[in-house]
Structure formats: C-alpha cells, structure tokens
Amino acid sequence: ASTPGATTETTTRTVDQVGVVGLGTMGAGIAEVFARHGFSVTGVELDEDGVARGRTHLETSTARAVERGKLTEEERAGLLGRISFSTSLKDLAHADLVVEAAVESMATKKAILAELDDVVAPEAVLATNTSSLSVTELSSATRHPGRVVGMHFFNPAPVQKLVEVVRTVVTLPAVLDDVAAVLDRIGKSPVVCGDKAGFIANALLFGYLNHAVSMFENRYASREDVDAAMRFGCGYPMGPLALLDLIGLDTAYEILDTMYKQGRDRLHAPAPILKQMVTAGLLGRKSGRGFYTYE
Ligand code: CAA
Predict the structure, then answer these.
(1) Is 61 near ligand 1, meaning CB less than 6 Å away?
(2) Ligand 1: nearest atom to the Cα of 132
(3) Is any atom of ligand 1 closer than 6 Å to the C-beta of 35?
(4) Domain end: 193, 216, 236, which one?
(5) Among 19, 21, 111, 136, which is least packed, fewest CB within 10 Å?
(6) What per-residue confidence (pLDDT) applies to 295?
(7) Domain containing 270: what range?
(8) Residue 162 CA neighbour count, 13 Å, CB half
(9) What region holds the 3-hydroxyacyl-CoA dehydrogenase C-terminal domain (predicted)?
C-alpha cells in the first residue's frame, strides 16, 4: 500500500558521511556510535563551548569503553579521528544523513531542519532524535518532508541497542529502508512506529517514572527504597529515580509535559517536584545533582 501524500522513490542512497546537530548527552553518544562503525561524522554545536563539551563527552565515554575492554586504544583513536566539529550547519553540505539531536524544543528543531533542508543534497535523509515532539510537524518545516524521519536513540546511546524509527504519513518508504540499513550497520535494533508522543518505549516508561517521583515526593518511600524495589524485585538494571538522573530531569519534564498535553492521561501530568528540581538546576547526572548527588 502506498503512503498517503508520498511520491514514490526507489533509489537506495549510500550513507558514508553523517552529520549530528547538538552534542549534548544524546548527540555526543550518537556521534560516537556512527564514528565507531566507520562513518565520517561532523558534529555541530551552537558555539565553541558547546563543541568543547561535546568533545569532552566523547573522550570520557570512549575512555570508559577502553577501560571496560570494549575498544582498544587504537580503535578509540580511529573513532575520535573520524569526528570533526563545527559551529555551522553549512559544514553539513556533504552529509548523506543528518541526525538532529538539539534541545527538545519545537521552534529550535524546526529552525534547524529548515536550514538543513537548504544545505544538504536533495537525496540526503534528515532524521530527528526527538523523544516526544511530533515528527510530522517538524517535517513540515522543510520543503521535502518525505525525507524526514524520527530516529530515536536511547540513553546511553553507545550501549542501548534500541532505535525507534518514526514514520510520518509522508515519510518515503525508501527512506525507511535506507535508515533500517544504516542502523543495521551500526549494530542497532530498530523498531518502527507511527508518530505519537512517546512512541513505544517512552509511552510505556514515563508513567512509571512519574509515579516513582510521586512516591518520593509524598514521602511514601525513600529514593533508595523506590529504586531498590525495582532493581531487586523486578530485575531492572537501575531504579526509576536513578534512571531519571541519567535521562536528565529537564528532558524528562519536557517529555512528560508533551505527552500529557497530547494524551491528557493523568499518569503523565508531571509530578510537581520535577519542575521544582529543574528550576533549581538539579538536572541529574549532567549537573552533578538530581535525586542523587554525583562526583
Ligand atoms: N561504548 C561501548 N560500550 C560501553 C560504553 C561505550 N561508550 N560505555 C559503557 N559500555 C558498556 C560497558 O562496557 C558495559 O558492558 P558489559 O556489561 O558487557 O561489561 C555496559 O556498557 C554497561 O556499562 P557500565 O558497566 O559502565 O554500567 P552499568 O553496568 O552500571 O550499566 C547502564 C549502566 C547501561 C546505564 C544500565 O544501568 C542500563 O541499561 N540502565 C537503563 C538505561 C535505560 O533505561 N535507558 C533508557 C532511558 S529512556 C531514553 O533514553 C529515552 C528518552 O527519550 C529519554
């Protein structure tokens, strides 16, 4: 069956050069995954400070991979050597695939996609790592919405196998095929879903995380006991409050807020303390303090 509004396209593009826009926790992790699998990667940040933060993130993460025996020093050097940095989207003119991983803001992401649409070649794929915004609405910022697709990685991106591929009603089937082929090359396990806030995993996960925050907020149980219950009772690798610190409380708040506005399910109405912690700068691991304190 053909996708409504889509024109047919049969070319299979070759993807060698990858652009990543935004080198925060997710963007840096995504750049690492592609470079690790031999792609040339250009990472773009807003300014030199952003580039420096992204570079540090990459160096730390890959050093950890070496310590854990996942990479050799030579492989690490090769990986880092395949990544170049820039503060201009114009440097992505030769990218075959660009993954946008900027802040979770509709206006920011739309502006980036609109500019990329003019910069890259007509057959290049524009992917967004959004976790809750409408990919369809994001794609409407471009003149070629058929080449826009969601490519949602999980944190930590170098470790988690899952990538949710989000198709809109106008994403070209060939784009979905090519994205699946690229994800296969980087060792990820894609699942495909439609464009609804939370996609598959977050739609299931965030009600649970929010409920854990409420338990903590209402002093029903301590943070350690909430987390221990899920780790030792249910075999989760980390408890919900520790996981929120990993995701980032600002990101978690944005995801819940978007899901709540779209679905009006009170499970997703962000627990009040979440907003207070974000306002106070307690963002989790990345700021050194969230539900727990980090060195
Ligand atoms: N490259 C390759 N491998 C790496 C790596 C890197 N940069 N960094 C770490 N690893 C490997 C380690 O070598 C280790 O492998 P082995 O188990 O084979 O030794 C493995 O990854 C785990 O790393 P660590 O031992 O350092 O850490 P850990 O065992 O404490 O696990 C964790 C940490 C992976 C985060 C684990 O606790 C976990 O999976 N937690 C759940 C994470 C989760 O649920 N993520 C989804 C969040 S939701 C989301 O992301 C969506 C959204 O939109 C917000």
Answers:
(1) yes
(2) 53
(3) no
(4) 193
(5) 111
(6) 85
(7) 201-287
(8) 13
(9) 198-294
Structural domain contains residue 183: yes
Residue 34 and residue 179 in one domain: yes
- In tens, the pLDDT along 156-174 reads 999 999 999 999 999 999 9
What's the pTM?
Answer: 0.93
Nearest CA to 3 out of 150, 194, 165, 143 is that of: 194
Paired with 293 in beta bridges are 289
Out of 59, 60, 62, 70, give the residue to mutate to test ligand 1, the one with the largest number of ligand atoms within 8 Å of its CB.
70
Pick from 159, 231, 257 the residue to mutate for probing ligand 1's pocket: most ligand atoms within 8 Å of its CB.
159
ipTM rounded to 2 decimals = 0.91
Answer yes or no: do 212 and 188 share one domain: no
Cβ-count burial 232-262 (b if 16+ within 10 Å, e if not): eeeeeeebbbbbbbebbbbbbbbbbbbbbee
| 30 and 46 share one domain | yes
Nearest C-alpha to atom 31 of ligand 1 is from which residue?
Answer: 237
**Catalytic annotation, residues:** 131, 152, 164, 202
The CATH number given to whatever domain includes residue 64 is 3.40.50.720
Q: Token pair of 271, please?
A: 């627990």
Q: Is 173 in the pocket of ligand 1 (CB under 6 A)?
A: no
